[in-house]
Structures are given as structure tokens and as C-alpha cells.
């Protein structure tokens, strides 16, 4: 349906793929309707409500991260994430070509972290970057599984070394919990990591 869809990948886990062209700043058609083109957000609410009713968890995937989308669309998406924070177990995006994340906060106080959008690096070199990919560790398929992200590992291909040796090798750059001494990668702990970055320039770099 208009490039977005949902599929049940495990008995209690649904994968929702969003068409992020409907929020892209480069999509001039959104000047006509930037609120909910294609009815995608309305559809997402229906999917999440059904999942909540059935006790299912949902993983959301998409290309453009919500924080890089048109403001009206992002605002509505953020409200949906707030409403269904107990159902949305994880969010995964790309597009920026760099390793980063977005933290979502509650609407009322903007102080309680409710969700995280993990943004993986790109396998392309654009712009002047080493190719990278990521492996996510997810709470497995068993009764009462949270289906949350437990950790992730990022791998890169060092182009400088590859050009010198003509022997390209993928190497593990870091594991999130190991690198930053985190017990979990929950929204609260990712928010705490941001606070640690603000206090410690060396850790941030």
C-alpha cells in the first residue's frame, strides 16, 4: 500500500516498514499535503492499536530518520511513538550515512525517554566515509519476550588500509554496551549516554 507495509515475522512481533518519501524534505509534492500523505500515519496507528490489543510488539524500519523529516510529519509521528511506547519495541533507520541515534521523549515534560531510533552507518563511501554495517542483538522469540534491542555491533572497512594492501577486510569497530559501559541500551540508558557525552568531551569524541 503506497510503499508501506506490515508483516508478522514472529508470533508476537510485527515488522512495520514505512515509506519515508512521504516525509522527505526533498519531496516537493508534500507542499500539497505534508500532514499525512498517503494516509500512512493513520494506517500506522491502526497497526499499532491492533498490535497493542493483541499484546504484540512492533519493530519500525524506514530510510529517513524522523528527525530529518518535514516538521509537521515528524511532530505527528512523535505523538504516535509517545502513545504506543509500550508497543514499539525498536526503530531502525539509515539515510544519514553516519552512526547515530535519536531519542524520543514524553510529550508532557520532554524529560522521560520513551523510545530510541537507531541509525546505522552506510556501506557506501558517500561522503568520504569508510563503509560500515551493523548487527543488532534482539531479545529473542519466547513467551513474554520484550523484543527490545539488547546491544549492537558496528563493523567498518578501512579504505585507507584496503588501498594500501589491496586486501579489504571488515573489522569490528565497537559494541555499544562494551564501548560505553552500559548495562542496557534502553531509552533511559541512551538518554543517560547523551548526558555523559555532554559532561565528557573525550567520551563524546
UniProtKB/TrEMBL annotation:
GO cellular component annotations of the record: extracellular space; lysosome; membrane
Pfam families from the UniProt entry: ASMase_C
Domain Sphingomyelin phosphodiesterase C-terminal, residue spans: 115-198
Sample GO molecular function, one term: acid sphingomyelin phosphodiesterase activity
Gene3D superfamilies reported in the protein's UniProt record: 3.60.21.10
Cross-referenced SUPFAM superfamilies: Metallo-dependent phosphatases (SSF56300)
Signal peptide segment: none
GO BP terms: ceramide biosynthetic process; sphingomyelin catabolic process
Recorded superkingdom: Eukaryota
Keywords (A to Z) from UniProt: Glycoprotein, Hydrolase
Matches recorded under InterPro entries: ASM_C, Metallo-depent_PP-like
Name of protein: Sphingomyelin phosphodiesterase C-terminal domain-containing protein
Amino acid at each position: 500500500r503506497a510503499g508501506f507495509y506490515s508483516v508478522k515475522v514472529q508470533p508476537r512481533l510485527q515488522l512495520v516498514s514505512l515509506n519515508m518519501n512521504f516525509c522527505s524534505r526533498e519531496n516537493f509534492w508534500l507542499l500539497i499535503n505534508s500532514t499525512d500523505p498517503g494516509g500512512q500515519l493513520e494506517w500506522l496507528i491502526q497497526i499499532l492499536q491492533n498490535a497493542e490489543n493483541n499484546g504484540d510488539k512492533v519493530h519500525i524500519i524506514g530510510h529517513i530518520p524522523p528527525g530529518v523529516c518535514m516538521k509537521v510529519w515528524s511532530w505527528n509521528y512523535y505523538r504516535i511513538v509517545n502513545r504506543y511506547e509500550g508497543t514499539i519495541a525498536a526503530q531502525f533507520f539509515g539515510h544519514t550515512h553516519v552512526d547515530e541515534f535519536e531519542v524520543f521523549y514524553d510529550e508532557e515534560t520532554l524529560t522521560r525517554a520513551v523510545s530510541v531510533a537507531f541509525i546505522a552507518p552506510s556501506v557506501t563511501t558517500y561522503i568520504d566515509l569508510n563503509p560500515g554495517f551493523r548487527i543488532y542483538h534482539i531479545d529473542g522469540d519466547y513467551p513474554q519476550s520484550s523484543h527490545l534491542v539488547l546491544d549492537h555491533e558496528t563493523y567498518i572497512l578501512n579504505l585507507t588500509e584496503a588501498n594500501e594492501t589491496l586486501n579489504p577486510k571488515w573489522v569490528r569497530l565497537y559494541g555499544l554496551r562494551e564501548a560505553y559501559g552500559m548495562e542496557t541500551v534502553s531509552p533511559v540508558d541512551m538518554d543517560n549516554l547523551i548526558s555523559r557525552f555532554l559532561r565528557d568531551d573525550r567520551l563524546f569524541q
